[in-house]
Amino acid sequence: MKLTKERIVDAGMAVFAEAGYQNLSMRQVADRLDAHAGSLYYHVRGKEELLALMADRVCHRAYDAGTDALAALPPAATWQDRVEAQVTALRAEIKRHPGGAQLLAESPGVLSTGAFSLMERLLRTLLDGGLPAAHCGIAADSLLSHVTGFVLQEQNGPAAPPAVTAGRYAELRERFPLVMGDLIPRLSQDEKFTRSIRLLCTGFTALDQG
Predict the structure, then answer these.
(1) For residues 201 and 95, what is the distance between their CA atoms, to the nearest angstrom?
(2) pTM over 0.90
(3) Domain residue limits, the chain
(4) pLDDT per residue over 5-22, tens digit each?
(5) What is the Cα–Cα distance from 150 to 132, expressed in whole angstroms?
(6) What Cα–Cα distance (Å) separates residue 144 from each residue in 4, 51, 58, 105, 131?
(7) Are 146 and 195 contacting, i.e. CB atoms less than 8 angstroms apart?
(8) Confidence band (pLDDT; 50, 70, 90) for 199?
(9) Which of 15, 138, 144, 160 sits most deeply, having the most CB atoms within 10 A of its CB?
(10) Rounded to an integer, what distance in angstroms lies between the CA atom of residue 109 and that of residue 97?
(11) How far is CA 117 from CA 59, 120, 124, 131, in A?
(12) Cα separation of 52 and 13, whole Å?
């Protein structure tokens, strides 16, 4: 089968899922394609460009998922609802790729039409919602950084909390009653994400009133 940039990105995504960000190599991608590593460089200049293309693909797919999410909203949806739909779709798309948050956070800083598309629509949503233009940039940056950081913790965090004895738990609860006690609700990751986005939007509204 003819070697193309699209196929190289496909193989890169597959290798990335298995090897992770730091361990991905052009040779592994070439092996995945049953090709010589040197032949890849006719289409992709190197690992950095490949990582950038992979991150761009994730962003484009997240944009498309956000389009579907926005279309499913009722006509009376608020700008906050529209923000939530977009960032929820982004989180879901990043989570589809093991290490996807690290890919977006650490991939080389190049022009990405996928990232630009996400940012452009988010800025338009905030601006149309009445947020002053002076605040829209930092608000959009905050939202996108929050999504990436949130998923990074989800993908890199431990699968389960460390086991502790009853005595150790009682000691920790006495020292850290808010962290370990029952006053602060324990939320699922989905609920925590949703509430955090709504909290950010509330803060943006307060800026509008300031």
Answers:
(1) 23
(2) no
(3) 45-207
(4) 999 999 999 998 888 777
(5) 26
(6) 31, 19, 14, 10, 17
(7) no
(8) very high
(9) 15
(10) 20
(11) 8, 5, 11, 19
(12) 11
Give the integer Cα–Cα distance in Å for 118 and 81: 16
- Residue 179, amino acid: V
* Residues making up the chain, counted from first to last: 210
Q: Which two structure tokens, joined as six digits, stand for 144? A: 């996108």
Q: Is the sign of the CA dihedral 177, 152, 72, 115 positive or negative?
A: positive
Q: How far apart are CA 181 and CA 177, in angstroms?
A: 5
User: In the predicted model, is pLDDT for residue 210 greater than 70?
Assistant: no
Query: Distance between CA 105 and CA 51 in Å, rounded?
Result: 11
Q: Which of 148, 73, 74 is nearest to 140 (CA)?
A: 148
Q: Is the pLDDT of residue 150 over 90?
A: yes
What is the 3-class SS of 49-66, one letter each residue?
A: HHHHHHHHHHHHHHHHHH
- At residue 80, the pLDDT reads 97
Q: What average pLDDT is seen over the chain?
A: 90
